[in-house]
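**Tokenised fold:**
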Amino acid sequence: MTALPASPAADRNKQPILETLQRVLPERGVALEIASGTGQHAIWFAAGLPGWQWQPTDLQASAMVTIAAWTDQSGARNVLPPMRLDVMSEQWPDEGDLFGEAFGETFDAVYCANMLHIAPWAACAGLMRGAARVLAPGGVLITYGPYLEDGVPTSPGNRAFDESLRNTHPDWGLRHLAQVEQQARKVGLHLRERHAMPANNLLLVWGREPTTQA
């Protein structure tokens, strides 16, 4: 088996995330992954969620090659060809391509892991706007990563990680969950579930408020 570019972090967290997704998501659906990176999550989740189709995306052209290689090597039949997507674009995907005709251009889930802290703060608003556009009725946005929370002590590891991110790039850093919630509410998304994950990470489930019948 050919060695492919790999993320050690993705390899460590893929199973805990999958186990949470298996509890959170219904048996079937179509997921759009934002910032897929190597594609390791896509093929792992597709195998563990066989009733789901998985659409990986990334901004970097080099990621397209790696995602496709991981998919080919895994033999996954429910992972679609990767597409370029800029989270801050007002159109997803941003090159005029269409998401697969088999399911139209709405998704039952949008998944984004470990992006918000290594992107400009504007990417958070872009993610929320885009997710609100493409989520099917009843669909959810799932975000994963480290956050700062009011009233919750920040672990020494996360404090050091935040400092290293800000030293690397002034626009990077761990995001305050309350501020992320503000961006979500602007587009009608609300935090439904908070799941504590290994290594001081959180898996968050966002969705629209259910409509009430008069």
